[in-house]
Each structure stands twice: as structure tokens, then as C-alpha cells.
Design brief:
It is a single chain. By secondary structure, the chain is an alpha/beta fold. It has one domain: Rossmann fold (3-Layer(aba) Sandwich), CATH 3.40.50.720. Helices cover 43% and strands 16% of the residues. Strand 5 and strand 6 form a beta hairpin. The longest helix has 26 residues. The model has no long low-confidence stretch (mean pLDDT 96).
């Protein structure tokens, strides 16, 4: 699928990897819709990319339904590209000196990272299915964001790993199901990316994480995530697969 002139919706588009995706796709000629829980962040990136800003909680059905209604109203044709970058990555041990972890904490992470991703997928697929087919009958592409924690979760990452493992597990069955509509589904599993969240780590923690990376010995740049998104969109044979973007890292237990 070509990027130029297609409508691209990016969740978590107000910062980090989502912002980088918005900027990259805008440079390639896409019409950008920035979704973020922070309205100010969404507006800032939308102004940079000459796009549309919508404050949206991906874990809330009504919020997402309202967002898609606004997208449909604002554009003469359906979206063709969805990139799900919204998510959270807190860590807690199941048992700690403070006692057993509260169940609502686990539920909230699943609700945002996994349910939120599916919430966006279902409504994006509905709109994409109504589009006129492009080259070889393609109508759209959905690119989700997982994590290498889906495969090598560290201590304290039970909830995060479970949520991202769910995103990985959805990829193939969703691609198989949506194929009849000409919609591809892909997932990227990043390793350590130099986002605002990672910038908050101490130098000691950052150095420890970098030593686990095979090559290059650094964090990934958000722009590298964005260019991979662009390649996936352009390469029609990429479907139903998870791509690690991690410099060869394999995380240890802690």
C-alpha cells in the first residue's frame, strides 16, 4: 500500500514512537489523525504534521467510537492505516514487602495495552472494509505495538508481558480473519527505545539495559520504529507476522 494521500490514524501519537510515526508518515504524504489521551500532546503533533487531533482513551469503548465518528465525518473516505502505539509499562512484583499486588493494577494494564489495541482494531477494520480497494484489492493495514517483554518478560513484568503477549497472539488470527476484506495485520515488538519514558531512567539503569543489546550498543531511536512502520505499509507481503526491533537483545530475568 502506498502511504501518500492515505488517512493514517496513530494512537499514542502525542509523544515517543507514536509522534515519530506521525511525523514520518506526514513526510511521506499521509493525512494524519493523532489520537492521544493528552489533548495538548495530540494538538501539538497535529500542528506539526498538518493533521487532526483527537483526545481519546483507547481502553474506553465510547471514547474510541466517538473518535472514529469524528474521523469519518472529517474525511471523504475511510482510513487506510492504523498504527497502535498507545500503551503503559509499569512494573510490580506479584508478591513484595508491601504484600500481594492488587488485582485492579493488573486489570488496568490489560485494559489499556491489550483491550485498547483490540478496541481500535475492531473499529478501524469496520471503516477500512467499506473503502474502495486499492492495488491487488488492499483496503487497509493495521500495525500494532507489542514488546520483547512478550517473549522475555523480566521480574515485575507479569502484567505488561501478559498484555503484550496478547497483542502478539492476536496478530495471525486477526490477519487471517481480515484478509477477505483486503486488510493486513502486523505487529512490531520493540526492545529498548529512547522515548520520554526511558529518558527518565537513571544512567545506571540505562547502561545496564544497553549492555544487554548485541549490536548496536544503544537504544533504538523512535525514528527507526517509524521507518519500519513505513516499510511494512509499503511491503504488501508482510502480513500476520511479528517483527522484533531490538538490536539482538534477549532480556535477562531482571
Amino acid at each position: 500500500m502506498k502511504i501518500k494521500d492515505n488517512i493514517a490514524v496513530v494512537t499514542g501519537g502525542g509523544s515517543g514512537m507514536g509522534e515519530a510515526v506521525c511525523c514520518y508518515l506526514a513526510e511521506q504524504g499521509a493525512k494524519i489523525v493523532v489520537l492521544d489521551k493528552s489533548e495538548n500532546a495530540a494538538v501539538r503533533v497535529a500542528n506539526k504534521t498538518h493533521g487532526m487531533a483527537i483526545d481519546c482513551d483507547v481502553s474506553n469503548a465510547q471514547s474510541v467510537e466517538e473518535a472514529f465518528a469524528r474521523i469519518k465525518q472529517a474525511h471523504v473516505r475511510p482510513l487506510s492505516i492504523l498504527v497502535n502505539c498507545a500503551g503503559v509499562a509499569p512494573a510490580k512484583r506479584i508478591l513484595s514487602k508491601n504484600g500481594v499486588v492488587p488485582l485492579p493494577w493488573f486489570e488496568e494494564i490489560i485494559q489499556i495495552n491489550l483491550v485498547g489495541t483490540f478496541n481500535m482494531m475492531r473499529l478501524a477494520a469496520d471503516q477500512m472494509s467499506q473503502a474502495e480497494p486499492q492495488e491487488e484489492g488492499e483496503r487497509g493495514i493495521i500495525i500494532n505495538t507489542a514488546s520483547i517483554a512478550a517473549f522475555e518478560g523480566q521480574i515485575g513484568q507479569t502484567a505488561y508481558s501478559a498484555s503484550k503477549g496478547g497483542v502478539v497472539a492476536m496478530t495471525l488470527p486477526a490477519a487471517r480473519e481480515l484478509a477477505r476484506f483486503g486488510i493486513r495485520v502486523m505487529t512490531i515488538a520493540p526492545g529498548f527505545v529512547d522515548t520520554p519514558m526511558v529518558k527518565g531512567f537513571t544512567e545506571e539503569v540505562r547502561a545496564s539495559l544497553i549492555t544487554q543489546t548485541v549490536f548496536p550498543k544503544r537504544f533504538a531511536w523512535p525514528e527507526e520504529f517509524a521507518t519500519l512502520v513505513g516499510h511494512i505499509i509499503n511491503n504488501q507481503m508482510l502480513n500476520g507476522e511479528v517483527i522484533r526491533l531490538d538490536g539482538g537483545v534477549r532480556m535477562g530475568a531482571s
